[in-house]
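Suppose you are handed a protein chain with no further information: no name, no annotation, nothing but its sequence. What can you learn? This example shows the usual starting point.
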Amino acid sequence: MRGVHFTRTPPGCAKYVYVPHGQALDIVVDLRIGSPTFGRWDSVVLDAHESTAVFLPVGVGHAFVARADHTIMCYLLSTAYDADNELAVSAFDPSLGLPIPVDVIPTVSVRDSAAPTLDRARESGLLPDYATCLGLWPNTAMSSP
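A reasonable first move is to predict its three-dimensional structure. Written in structure tokens, the prediction is:
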């Protein structure tokens, strides 16, 4: 289990994620304060055989649960990776209600275990602002075709 990870904004970072080997439940969480979907999530199964992928705009958090041994997650980033700008919100925050499968016992990193709840991250000023995110990457305000 990884996440819910996001990048300090600014600078912000959009991500394109896919699974070339294995399978993962991919969860995206809107962490942008002021967004009409703030705090809401969606999920999709990424599978190497289905060739599915997910685009995450600036300010949207990302978590995943590997559903097969040796699952590989690949990321294409809009900016260079900088560990100092990487933040996290707890995937186990009950207020988020993420669809973490109950049939597995997740292995979680020390960093993810110590991640704050959504409310604590908001109170601490860690979460990105919706308007700022749109200004950094204006094409991420997705609309219906």
